[in-house]
Amino acid sequence: MPLDINPVHVRTLQAIARSGSFSRAGETLHLSQPAISHHVRHLEREIGVPLLIRRGRRASPTEAGALLLEHAGRAFKALDEAREAIQRLRGRVAGRVSVGTGATLSIYVLPGLLRRLRVRHPQLELVVVTGNSGEIASAVSRGELDVGIVTLPVPVGRALLISPFYADRLVAIAPPGRQWRRRAPMTAAELAREPVILYERGGTIRRVVDDWFRRGRATPTIAMELGNAEATKKLVGAGLGLSIVSEVAARAEARARALNVIPLRPALHRKIGLIRRRDRAPRPALQAFLAALDRSPRRARGGPNP
């Protein structure tokens, strides 16, 4: 009896396997957690075997799940290529582009670029997955993502091609109020005297910040470690410490005087780069996305304006 496999449910399984959690898959696919769970249950019922191993909040594919994803990945790729070929006959650029990046870039850098790209190529299907630089690089290397926009350096093998995108300026943020209204840049030694809220360990941006403190011969007093810039800003605004974030992430709060933004001395930037498979020529859909990045004023100036 032939299997009645719903491709939408397989896409859901892909997102869970890629992110390692139901909740992050739901955020990526804009689905509720009950909907995600329903997709998995329906798929497992149809296949007849468990497809995921659940350990607390984490989830990973079983042997059967990995096998299904391997074959489904090839099938989805063939369908995408067929759709692109048909659209080329009609003189259009179409197809699916999967992009991996960090939360800050997905919130503050990509929206304007993706909006302009969608206006130019309305047939494009754009999928944005968030994670840390190492996770994104691994997914691109395995062929699960077409391109990654990540903080450099990131460990990659010869299979990946890396090209610079822009330099993202990092700044200190402090609670609102007179105490932290200053024009003079803040040194590592000065910042280390205050409780600081830093990105969680393991990410490339945390290594960039830690290196800045080391070069300034200062050891920060770490009050908290978080993986989310939005939560960090809320905690800083509540007076629980200072932090270092991307300047673009604090721009709205600075304008609203909800936070004080203080430059750093020496200035601190993180290098943002593009990574993709070296052995795969970009399809028209990916070419259109890469061309949009090339046209970005942010790339041309190497600065903060999207």
What does it look like?
With 306 residues, the chain is an alpha/beta fold. The chain folds into three domains: 1-90, Orthogonal Bundle (Arc Repressor Mutant, subunit A); 91-166 and 271-301, D-Maltodextrin-Binding Protein, domain 2 (3-Layer(aba) Sandwich); 167-270, D-Maltodextrin-Binding Protein, domain 2, CATH 3.40.190.10. The chain has helices at 7-19, 22-29, 33-47, 63-89, 103-108, 110-120, 133-141, 188-192, 204-215, 229-237, 251-255, 284-295, 297-301, and strands spanning 52-55, 58-61, 95-101, 124-130, 147-152, 160-174, 195-199, 221-226, 242-246, 260-262, 268-277. Strands 3, 4, 5, 6, 7, 8, 9, 10 and 11 form a nine-stranded mixed beta sheet that branches. Strands 1-2 form a two-stranded antiparallel ribbon. Helix 1 (7-19) crosses helix 3 (33-47), helix 2 (22-29) packs across helix 3 and helix 6 (110-120) packs across helix 12. The longest helix is centred in the N-terminal third of the chain and has 27 residues, at 63-89. The protein is globular, with a radius of gyration of 21 Å. 35% of the residues are buried. Residues 300-306 have low confidence and may be disordered.
